[in-house]
Specification:
The chain has 451 residues and is an all-alpha fold. The protein contains 22 helices and no strands.
Length: 451
């Protein structure tokens, strides 16, 4: 029964889900109409909001393109390939392969979401080469399901945002948070740790149970990158020697390694996207040894960034329309969040906040962006209901990551590495949405009761 349901989801998505760009454009036009109807704004005002916000994610877009490119280059270094080959050769059956990839990706995303997305996709690709009979689509979807552990992890943007008190935080939350909410009350609270452990157990089992029968399995061996032929030293010009020698790489690696060591000595094990990208760069250069080898790997990795470069600006425009204010001082995001709060009570508030955050995430798939929009509404309401700030914040965090399973925004880097499209994995991700929704819903309700 379960496998029939999964196969049905896969076939439905394969037939009707368009390219993520069409999904993105459809959201744009849908929100354009909703903003006009609900907030009373003129079409031109919505167009201006859209265009004004269109480039607001340029920095983040560049970060994500670098995560994909540098991660891809690192994975294609000979030494890293050997490590991946050994790890990918551990499972002997398709079921074992699915479980291993899910667990590794989940733990990696718990450490840092950018690191987890790249490592999960890279491991899935290599495992597909090693294990016969494993469905490649499900393998990549399993790696992506590890993303569900992001907001319970040590790089979770919303728990980290409330872990340090500031006047800006107090202002954003309308006075609901006046002192720091330590991570011992969020990501390291027993209920949240139990949620993380539950997902690390449930997701691998669910993914394994979804593996199609042999006749429906699509095995795929991603093409290997052909190594560039070595030049003989006699044919090398001085420029060739500089490109194919280790001198400049060694100098750069020494400087980069010194900075990474300094960062962790002064900040502790606090990972952010910048240090992850920088580490990918330095590790990749170290493993490739020469500038020419690394340049060739980067050139190959850049090919997968097209979806990020094209679609992320459109999502920035969507976010701008969501917060665009009409003549009565209301935005779509404000009206939606306020409407959810108006039907809640002290018991249902955490669950309804979680659901509302999941819906808002479809239009604004960014933890930081969603926090800035919903915190001024959800956090003061939580205070009025007597709900602990940690519960309210985690309800937004859970909702933000929950519907990412059917929002292709975050899947783009992994899909670029895997060489797949969104429709290849989204059928399985629908099941992830349902399963994780149940886990998150129960968890946030219990969390609200014990805090």
């Amino acid at each position: 029964m379960f496998k029939k349901f999964t196969n049905g989801c896969v076939k439905l998505v394969q037939k009707y889900l368009p390219d993520p760009l069409i999904f993105c454009l459809a959201l744009t036009f849908l929100l354009f109409v909703i903003g006009i109807v609900l907030t009373g704004q003129s079409p031109m005002n919505m167009v201006v909001s859209w265009g004004s916000g269109f480039w607001s994610l340029l920095g983040f877009s560049m970060q994500m393109a670098m995560v994909l490119t540098f991660g891809h280059a690192m994975a294609n270094a000979p030494a890293f390939k050997k490590l991946l080959t050994k790890l990918a050769s551990i499972p002997k059956t398709p079921g074992q392969a699915i479980v291993m990839v899910t667990v590794v990706a989940g733990i990696a995303c718990w450490i840092n979401w950018g690191f987890g997305l790249v490592i999960g996709a890279i491991l899935a690709r290599e495992t597909a080469r090693q294990v016969k009979g494993v469905d490649y689509r499900l393998l990549v979807a399993s790696a992506y399901s590890g993303f569900l552990l992001w907001h319970q992890g040590i790089s979770a943007s919303i728990p980290l945002a409330i872990a340090t008190a500031s006047d800006a935080l107090t202002a954003l939350t309308q006075g609901a948070i006046v002192e720091a909410v330590p991570t011992s009350q969020t990501v390291f609270h027993p209920v949240i740790l139990l949620t993380t452990l539950s997902l690390l157990i449930i997701l691998p089992l669910v993914n394994r149970a979804m593996h199609p029968d042999p006749e429906n399995t699509i095995s795929f061996t991603p093409p290997a990158i052909e190594p560039v032929p070595e030049m003989s030293k006699a044919d090398m010009t001085p420029a060739d020697k500089a490109e194919r020698g280790p001198f400049f790489t060694a100098l750069t690696v020494c400087m980069g390694g010194a900075y990474i060591a300094h960062y962790f000595l002064t900040h502790g094990f606090l990972l952010n996207l910048d240090i992850v990208i920088f580490s990918f760069l330095i590790i990749g250069m170290t493993l490739h040894k020469t500038p020419r080898s690394y340049l060739d790997a980067i050139s190959e990795g850049v090919k997968g960034t097209s979806g990020i470069l094209l679609q992320f600006p459109f999502y920035a425009g969507i976010a701008a329309m969501m917060v665009s204010v009409g003549p009565e001082g209301q935005s779509v995001a404000n009206m939606f969040s306020t409407g959810i709060v108006s039907i809640a009570n002290d018991f249902t508030f955490p669950l309804l906040s979680f659901i509302s955050a999941g819906i808002v995430n479809i239009f604004i798939p960014s933890g930081g962006g969603q926090w800035s929009i919903q915190a001024p509404i959800i956090m003061p309401a939580a205070m009025d209901f007597g709900v602990h700030p940690a519960v309210a914040a985690m309800s937004i965090a859970f909702g933000d990551v929950w519907t990412s399973m059917i929002q292709p925004f975050w899947a783009l880097p992994a899909l670029g590495i895997a060489g797949l499209t969104a429709k290849d994995i989204m059928g399985y991700c629908v099941v992830h949405l349902i399963v994780s929704g149940i886990v998150f819903g129960i968890s946030i309700t219990i969390f609200g009761m014990v805090m």
